[in-house]
Amino acid sequence: MLLVLSLLTLLFSTVQSTPSIYTTLLKKTNENIVLLAIPTCTELPEDFEGEICLDVEGWSEENEERLCFNVDFVGSGLPPVGFVGSLAELLSKKGSHKITLTHLSHTHSFYIHNSEHLLPSPPPYIFITSIPYMLIMSDHSLSIDYYVLFEGDENAGRGEVRLELTNGESFGIPIKKSGSYDVKLDRKNRIDPGTHSIKLSIHSSPAVSTIFDRVLTPIEGGPNGVGRLMMSKIGKDVDLGVCEGACGSVDLGFGNSVKRKIMYVGMLKYDGQKTIWLEQFKSLNRNKWDMQFSTFMNPENQVNSGEIIKAIEDAGVEIKVKGLPSITEEDLLNTPCEFTEIIKKGGGVNMSIIVTCLLQRLNTANKDLNKLTPKWVKETWKGIVGEINEYEPDILVFANAREITDTLLTVSASLAEKKPKIVMELPNLFPAIDLTSVDAIVAPSHFAALHYSVQEKVDEAGGGIKVSVVNPGVDSKKWNYGDEVCEKKDIYTIGFVGRLSSEKSPGLFVAAAKRILRRNEKVRFRIIGEGAWLEYMLEMVEVLGISSHFDFMGGIYGNELVKLVGELDVILNPSLRYESETFCIANIEALAMGVPIVTFGIGGIGEYMVNGYNGIVVEDFESVERVVEGLVDGVLEVLEGGRREEMGRNAIRSVDEGGFRLEDNVRKYELLYEELLRI
């Protein structure tokens, strides 16, 4: 059978318009054929008829020839081109391959990358599409069109194309007969901004993979885009309808004679929210507040939990672990709930179905824990409620996880013998639960507090919930810039600080690094962080031939992190997913050290970034080309434009004068907690 795959809007996939070389290859049945999908080339004219030539690195030089063919350019991309023989074998080999496309004086280069050798022996007569590597697109959805031609009807119905995404989802697409097929890969009709990976395979053939970036459209990321709330443009004296910490006047002397208890509930994951809580653990008055951190999953089942456990213990706060019961297939069969879609398409358990069942069983028992059945349901509810009853917190704090699982905690709190005040933090937007039982929402930025996904939930709950903005703060004793700010250096260091994950757009960082090196080779790139995308970043820098300029430091914490950040000349933060970037504490920590930042300024980042003052804010999304070039120009303006020292000192001022110090943060939280207990 023959398989053609191409990326919609980036690639042209209509078989009728393919060049003669492709039509000829379709008739061959005795050779392997590699089908190369060619990306849209913005450097080429809008429409033309003429000769296109391809140079394949490692083949064109050896054979002293290039592949040329005539084609009518259709604007949206070129048709796939098929290769046989030694060139097909080269393109199917493990590793990266650079391809240069030429038309008259216009050239465009791109890469393909194979994680393993693609063509098995003997030939299976299957087209395998080598999808271009590290494409950048602004479309909300990605569609894969493919054309299948069977050698005979006896093969009909036996084929399947399998697609796997980095978020764990996978799709099996059956092939029933010859013809055109289409599948849309989206999440509720959209692909989130960030760096993504897709693997495609047919039968037992090795997977073809590619990495691409989805950037913002002008309406999302432009100067007045929906992903922005630049406080430097609005002004902090404008009444935005939310509170700064407490919503009323509170006497800080309240509660000195009675120690109040705060229970923090979450996963053992060292993230921005835990950083905020750790500062509270260390700074809240212990004569007034007793604190406990609770988690409902055993540490051995939580990835990289050791660092946060140590940090919490060093802060003098007790960690309580209450593992919930495991659930067997027999348990589910003996539970009167609907579990038909309990397993996700890509594998793993659909927790929303489990939570729905737990809530149904609770209502059936009229919320009497002793009447709950079956055993796993009773143990789950009694485990969470029992933990709350044992500690008897006055305030229960949790972070919005955008999942219905948060409901288990809020409902359990309502069933406790002593009902605590409930505070929901907003490290993420789009809360998925009913907020009726929540007493206060704490947002790290005005962008998060005013976001429609939050305000709609507040309105649904009756509108009586306090929504407070408490900006994260940095410890000036720890994040101290010292005596020198941005001293002159022979080699500059450009940093990435944060979790290596899809939403942080690591692909854009690497793409920008490649272009920065074309204009200034006296730079190094320091990656501080860990995560699922480390392996992909290592692959990307290797493919682009820039790995010698990169230092991957891994997950660094404490004083060592302060030292490494202080050595940076500029931070490049390419994050674009404004719906999850509600503040970014790593940026504030860097600014406190006098390190300027180049960023898109989306989401909560606009709370403190001022373009041209403490860094560069990129707002040009008119083309995908300008997105990357904007980052490159911004970095080089800081490093080469003579403004590095000025921006570094302004960065420190923006933290000192903007209310982003630790003492400001702790004072606002304490005001909020005391106001809650007065109600």
From TrEMBL:
GO molecular function, one term: glycosyltransferase activity
Alphabetically ordered keywords of this record: Glycosyltransferase, Signal, Transferase
Annotated Glycosyl transferase family domain residues: 488-651
Signal peptide: 1-17
Keyword Membrane on entry: no
Pfam families: Glycos_transf_1
Protein name, entry field: Glycosyl transferase family 1 domain-containing protein
